[in-house]
Amino acid sequence: MAKRDDLGLREALSDRLLPMLVAAMSFLAALGLAGTLASASLAHAWQNEASATLTIQVPQPDDPGATGKTTRLAAVQAALAQMPGVENPRLMSQDEENKLLAPWLGEDATQLGLDLPSVISARWAGASSPDALGQSLGKVAPGTLVDAGAIWAARVAALTGSLQDCAAVVLLIVAAVAAAVVAVAARAGLAQRRDTITIVHGLGALDGDIAARFSSRATVLVAAGAAGGTIAALPVLAWLAALAAPFAGTGIQPGGGGLFNLPLPLWGTLPILPLAAAGIGWVTSQITVRRWLRGLP
Amino acid sequence: MVRFEDVWLKYSTRPGTPGHDVLRGISFEIPDGGFRWLTGPSGAGKTSLLKLIYLAEHPARGFIDILGTRAAHISRREAALLRRRIGVVYQDFRLLPQLSAYDNVALPMRLAHRGETQINADVTEILRWVGLEDRLNARPDELSGGAQQRIAIARAVVARPKLLVADEPTGNLDDEQAQRLMLLITALNRLGTTVIIATHNMALVERYPAPRLRIEAGRMVQNG
Lengths: 297, 224
Ligand SMILES: Nc1ncnc2c1ncn2[C@@H]1O[C@H](COP(=O)(O)OP(=O)(O)OP(=O)(O)O)[C@@H](O)[C@H]1O
Ligand SMILES: [Mg+2]
Fold this sequence. Notes:
The complex is a heterodimer.
Chain A: H1 17-51, E1 53-58, H2 72-82, E2 86-91, H3 94-105, E3 118-124, H4 131-140, E4 145-148, H5 149-192, H6 194-202, H7 207-248, H8 264-269, H9 272-293
Antiparallel strand pairs in A: 1-3, 1-4, 2-3
Helix pairs in contact in A: 1-5, 1-7, 5-9, 7-9
Chain B: E1 2-11, E2 20-30, E3 35-39, H1 46-53, E4 61-66, E5 69-70, H2 76-83, E6 86-89, H3 101-111, H4 116-129, H5 145-157, E7 163-167, H6 175-190, E8 194-198, H7 202-207, E9 212-216, E10 219-223
Helix pairs in contact in B: 3-4, 3-5, 4-5
The complex binds adenosine-5'-triphosphate and magnesium ion.
């Protein structure tokens, strides 16, 4: 049909309220989407690292060990070297320890004068759980802690799994609310244009013709609102990404990098938001308008 | 052709409440190219009968055939396409207030997907016929009642309908305008359009003799 306002239905939908509400929805959806992707990538990073990692903390490493011949650290290292299932035991340098603790204690944890334990990292290649390891090491140097990543891996998986479920639920709710908003706006537009629509219907306009006027307008307004909301969410997402960077092991400096902090998958998925919103706008307005038109003879 | 067989119409004001019968057992036939006056006192049911013809109401009972289509059993799409072949002058005009006189008259042609060149030619010509060629861009609320009525008439005939249904089309016109309108309608009628006009204007009826359908209190009391 002609592009001009030939049926007098151009201004049939509020061109301010609808995009603004949809923008707010999209803002939330962008956060939800980022949450889904972030928890997925954190889960991936952490699980890889954690599943096979043993972290052994030896407090007071320089004190004499249980046998008295060597330091506690040396005793533990010697014991580890003998144990089946333990591969590549390696004493962490001060630098590495700093990095590990940075998110919790700041850049120079080892300079704080805290009595920090020595940390040995190793890979666990044993078939069973490394529980017995802690007991045998405790005999050599009491107080030694064995942190078996496998347990953490399971917990992290459970946690990120439920985080992802939450984010998916948020997205669904946001989509449902957006559909409701479009339906309400379409109904308001129909009520406001009742006379015009009745006349045009009487002149022989097809339900599809009338629905198309509403839908094309709803789609444009909703897509614009969603694009606005998504763009408005970018700074917040960048800020969240910067906060999460040290934990995700992506090596990004907190506070630096701005939008470049956003992971690539997020850049790939964010443009889907306005498209999905446009789809919701089109389908919802079609259904709403066609249903309403059934009330006419 | 328009044919009614024992048609009854009820308006139910509220769902669930039984409405009263506005039309009771109406039967008549207008052959293709025929012309009928529809008369009767105010409230007799003239507008209601016309509404059944232009598919704005469904009968409670009876059989209605419009332009060879049985009105009861058509899809919404078929009904819309049938409406495009019927020109209607409503008693209350029903112009779109946000559109100019020109765009109001162009509406039926745009609905029928005619090209803008043809629309321009036909709309301009018909507006000249009703004497409004200098008010093309006026909105309905800037026009007098008579001018609005002439816009409504122009819109009803611009797409050369097979059937013209006019509800009190001279109510707001002076004698000379009414004559001019009748000239237009009789010309269309001679070209094959079936015409039915509801009116209280007995002088006009006398001047243009044609078979009359007269209803009183929802019943047909004269046919011919
Ligand atoms: N939508 C409606 N709902 C309920 N009752 C209606 C409705 N439209 C008309 N009526 C009633 O139906 C009866 C016939 O009305 P109608 O408008 O058909 O009369 P009319 O012959 O056209 O009158 P007039 O000459 O004044 O235009 C009247 O009693 C009227 O009150
Ligand atoms: Mg009437």
